[in-house]
Amino acid sequence: MTDLRAFRATILLAVALGCGTKGTDGATDVVDGDADTDADSDADSDTDVDTDSDTDADTDSDTDADTDSDTDVVHSGHSGTITTPSNCVNPQPINDSRGQWSGLVRCADGAVNRAAQRSCDPSPPPWPACSQGFGTCTVDADCTAGPNGRCLDTYLGCGCTYSCATDGDCGANEICLCGGAMTNVTDSWSHCVPANCATDADCGSQECGVAVQTDGFGCPQYALVGCRTPGDACREDGDCSLGDQCTIRPIAFDWRCRTIPNLACGRPLLVDEVPVHAATRARADWTVPLGEAARDPELAERWLRIAEMEHASVASFARATLELMALGAPPDLLVATQRAAAEEVEHARLAWGLARRYGAPESGPGPLPLDGVAPRSDRDAIVRGLVREACVGETVAAAELREGVRLCADPLLASTLQQIAADEERHAALGWRTLGWLLRDATSEELAAVERELEAAVDELLAAPMERLHRPEHGFVGGEARERLRARVVDQVVRAAWGALAKR
């Protein structure tokens, strides 16, 4: 098993450097000028900016955003009137890729409902027609399982894609989800999705909710639509444990919290604790030529997913740079963070190259969804993100890569993994160095709060579902071997580094 002593020494050195780095910062907490104890600028004790005691932005006593005394909201415009139940406060229409209302609304608590049926753009994905000579189809006429069938070049050969314009194009227990309405769904075009309701009016609760279900890699993939009920365990992700997802169970169609499967590969780009990434598309400029190996769809698909996450890491480091600048970070931290972003570009190119090596077509990223991707301005939020994404996530990911290098039987693959592992170890060290700088003047109470955050992140990591892919000869360590490695990294590196930082 991988010897972690050298890695631990690197991380401990980074902690020492971070704690010794002095930069220019002033008061980083925003203090308002009123006489209450909240963070807004009025004199009451809630968190809005009015003078009543509820949490909306009007001056009546209910919790919606209008000025009457009931708790429903009527939203006019967008070719109709949307009346939503009291559970959906201040609904906002969600537009599709054309900029037209999709029929979906987002409630104030983040929950998404389908308020109305709408016509969608039935255009197929922007992929070329089948030209690869292998796959599940050769011409459009082969694609008869759904509406508007097209045979296109997909990641792993020619495959059928289907689009829709209305619910009538879809089968029983399906609705047509307009393209672009849910940006964290892999299929970005209008397509049919499973549903047990078409609009709010179909449900006893008057809420027909839309959820995103993740695939086995923790990446948003497909949508499900179902009635909300009083017995549901959650309405949106914030109702679940940190890192879990509020979604619909496919058969029961009830709303439950679900642990998001864990895939450690670089620093993730998170929006509301959910990984965001660009979907893979056919293109040639992101693929590093790495020769050919025996065609292996499982490995090709895994490397496509890793490429998407590594590409998203570029944006994660870009956001981190802005956050550090907002806190007055020293130049060496900014340079190192910018360098890490550039290295993630190369990691993504290598990953797409490895996918190609195992049989996937030449591919690269599509547009990156930017909704909600913004620098965090709150120092505590920045620290929490750094602890989870870098000090725990990247540290463990780097060790897993190193173990993959040790066990890999393919010399070219081992060399590629070695390059990525060395970079990821530096990125993990950068995370700890940055944390040391941020906490150099922390009080004992602040350190205790950060330690609780770190232990919560560790608990979630160790409780994640067991990795099913265990092919060590190809650099992937899963099953019980991965569980044991993660436990060692947590004890010998993560907790050791925190102990050194807390005692500085």
Task: Please render the helix and strand layout as text.
Blueprint: H1 5-20, E1 73-76, E2 81-84, E3 92-95, E4 101-106, E5 112-114, E6 150-154, E7 157-161, E8 174-177, E9 191-194, E10 208-214, E11 220-227, E12 244-248, E13 255-259, E14 270-271, E15 274-275, E16 280-282, H2 297-326, H3 331-357, E17 363-365, H4 379-407, H5 411-438, H6 444-463, H7 479-502
Antiparallel strand pairs: 1-2, 3-4, 4-5, 6-7, 8-9, 10-11, 12-13, 14-15, 16-17
Brief rundown of the structure:
The chain has 504 residues and is α+β, with helices and mostly antiparallel strands. It has 7 helices and 17 strands.
Rg computed from alpha carbons, rounded to a whole number of angstroms = 24 Å
**Whole-number average pLDDT?**
80
Unreliable parts: 21-84, 215-220
Q: Ends: how far apart?
A: 31 Å
Based on CA inertia axes, which overall geometry fits? Answer: globular
Q: What strand line-up does the widest sheet have?
A: 3-4-5
Largest sheet: 3 strands, antiparallel
What number of structural domains do the residues give? 2
Strand content: 5-15%
Please estimate the helix content: 25-40%
CATH class membership of the largest domain: Mainly Alpha
Number of helices in the DSSP assignment: 7
Helix/strand order: HEEEEEEEEEEEEEEEEHHEHHHH
- CATH-derived topology of the largest domain: Ferritin
If classified by CATH, what would the architecture of the largest domain be? Up-down Bundle
Structural class, judged by helices and strands?
A: alpha+beta
- Number of DSSP strand runs: 17
